[in-house]
Amino acid sequence: MIKDMTQDEISLQIIKTLKENKKTDFISILEELQPYDVAKIYVDLPEKHKIRFLLFLNFDVLADLMEELEKEEQLEVLNKLGIEKSSKVLDLMDNDDLALLLDELSPEKKDYFLSGMKSEESKAVTDIMNYPPETAGRIMTNRFVWIRNYYTVREAVDKLKLFAEFAEAINYLYVVDEGRRLVGVVSYRDLLLAAPNEVIHNIMYERVISVTVTTDQELVARMTERYDFLAIPVVDENNILVGIVTVDDVIDVVIKEANEDIEKLSATGKSIDFETKTLVAAARRLPWLILLLFIGLISGQIISGFEDTLKQVVAIAFFMPMIAGMTGNTGTQSLAVVVRGLISYDIDKGVIVRLITRELGVGITIGITCALLISIIAYIWQGSFILGIVVGCSLFFTLIIGTLAGTIIPLILYRLKIDPAVASGPLITTINDIFSLLTYFGIATLFLNYLL
Question: Residue 365, by phi and psi: left (phi above 0), alpha (psi -120 to 50) or beta?
Fold first, then answer.
């Protein structure tokens, strides 16, 4: 039994069965594993064992394996299998996953794989690829079970059993009319609780929550979370049911969008992961950083403008990094809150007013707390009550400025139909540096005679 084995031990056992050509033992081991684990074992296998590994798998397991691999590894498997076997595997893959793979290939390679598939599967995948990127149409699958409203529960269950292997999800059965327009939905739970002779029309929900093929994938994810759906139907402009988006695809969307937002917040612009080459990673970060470098020169100009103040009261310089750093930190915190909120909530004028008011209150509360603390520290450290007042007042105002900047800038971008995540953390920090230094040195100059 492999239930007590570690992943490494299972891999060694798999290699042993491959070396000894024991296909039966090989299959019995894989039957206990999830597709992700099978894919992990395949990727980590020595190259010399990969061909036999693939040949030992049936087409259903190969299709599951493909859906767990990265694009480069998928292409590797298809090339190892050859056109005849790879076509059968592609026929069994979820059409949305297959569309994602083929969409990134050259037209010649795409046609090569599509030509070997069944005509109905090839057409379904091609239809999906024709929808705009990042829409419901691009992430949906056409593998779902539909029924008519005059079916009995028994007839619906019989059809569900018949297509259980075909369907990607069987949590819901969608009710369509003679024109395949979506008119209702019934859950598997409803079928279990209803009498076998009950007519579907009497137990179905007629108010169906659906999305169109052009609905943005982020909105699909938001609706799935809002209604706790395991799948959501997709219709065209005529309300004809063309597919469903399942929760596993929604999770992929959420992770992808979160990664994109993190990239923008960190000003990397494009995806950078552990495999990205040094020069490529540097090239993707440099444009933003060069821009911020020139903006940062403004901070230096501000400091030079207050050179006399610094010369007369050197202690002011001790608190410059703290003032600038704290302002940038609060701005980045507010930015993260707003970007996350824009994804989760419907934004209107009332929500914006409440958000700005709330963040203003947060800024004042944080400002008072930190200002009092740093005033006491400055007085004890430098022995100057006035210096404590200057540093404390400066921190109070700059924290409010930082919080409001981190809140208002992404809201303005959102109103301008620009992705608010492009208001990156470094950009907010740099802008806040400028305002914090102006505020700090301005207040210090006003109190200069008292500081002397």
Answer: alpha
Q: Which residues of 434-443 are buried (b: 16+ CB within 10 A; e: fewer)?
A: bbbbbbbbeb
Enter the CATH code of domain 7-139: 1.25.60.10
More confident residue, 189 or 305: 189
Residue 227 identity (one-letter amino acid): Y
The pair of three-digit structure tokens given for residue 57, joined into one six-digit string? 């798998």
Mean of pLDDT over the chain: 82
Give the pLDDT band (50/70/90) at residue 425.
Answer: low
Residue 419 CA to residue 219 CA, distance in Å, equals 14
CA–CA separation, 330 vs 399, rounded Å? 7
Average pLDDT score over residue span 241-254: 88
Q: Structural domain boundaries of the chain?
A: 7-139, 146-256, 278-451
Tokens encoding 344: 């989760």
What's 146-256's CATH class? alpha beta
Residue labelled with tokens 């369509």: 176
Q: What is the sign, positive or negative, of the torsion defined by CA atoms of 347, 353, 358, 364?
A: positive
Q: How far, CA to CA in Å, does 402 sit from each of 217, 284, 433?
A: 32, 27, 9
CATH number of 278-451: 1.10.357.20
